[in-house]
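Protocol step 4 of 6: structure prediction from sequence.
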Amino acid sequence: MNEQRNAMAIARARHALLSAGLDSTVELEAATSVTNEVWMTEQHVIRVNRRPNQRLRREAILGQSLPSEIGYPTVVSCGDQMGADFLVVARVPGEPLAHCWPEMTREQRRRAISQLARKMRHLHQTLAPSDLPSIDAPQLLRGDTLSPVVSLLAALDDARSLQYVDRGLIDDLENLVSELTPAIEPFTSRNLVHGDLTFENVLWDGTDVTAILDFEWARTAPADVDLDVLLRMCHYPSLHVGEKWVDRTHAEDYADVPEWLQEDYPELFSFPRKADRLRLYSIAYDLRDLTMFPPGAPSRQLHELHSLNRLRNAVLGCSHLDVSDAGTRR
């Protein structure tokens, strides 16, 4: 079955190359990805999205608006077939920063964060294109509804009916959301955030950060939405890499990142009620994860980092935001 799935994935990648007017017989190298099928040739990267939401077609629209300082690759072609939309881009020098990080020196890591901070600042100053389609973001928060937490409250109601989910926990979360919501109001912005800014989506060539990639979740939102993603990655980095890299990925290697980022990009940490905002972002992310991947057992039998246990820790005040105050000091 795995061989059959792999053969079909290769066929989709070759179809994308053919549709782009490129040689579809070239050798393909599989790349790790959490959400897409990704293949590389010597000159191009092919990404195929199997979900019926056309995220990659949307990214092709967005890519034309990104400033050159970000290093986003040239879009060669895109396809909009539902359930198999694809994006072909020119290959940029470098490897995912997450793969390089374990072997990098402290000086290299510090340099990488400084360069990443500059690219993030450029991104957060970029206006979204007027024709950018909306998307259901990883955090269940929106700026185009009466309240930014409408989707989050709906997800809480859905979670009440899930097996192995304690209704008392959902009640506590609902009260916490109500308490924290004023901290993010108004949840509006004309500028872009990346939406999934982990080190898997940053390229490092051994000396420099060459690019930020994979803008399929990019949208308009306050800039500290990207801070939420980065802080979560620093505490749970093994959840944000491909299976091949899990054993080499350790949280202690990321311990300095929040402090370095704050030194280089202090504006990102200057939002009023910063700690409350980050806590609400974290709950919104974990609720989406919980409803997409419901628990198959009681919380005590699940991995400690399962979304159900992360939500319980948020209520108890012992989440990753409480273990260390780096990046969350008011």
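Step 5 (inspection) to follow. The longest strand covers residues 44-49.
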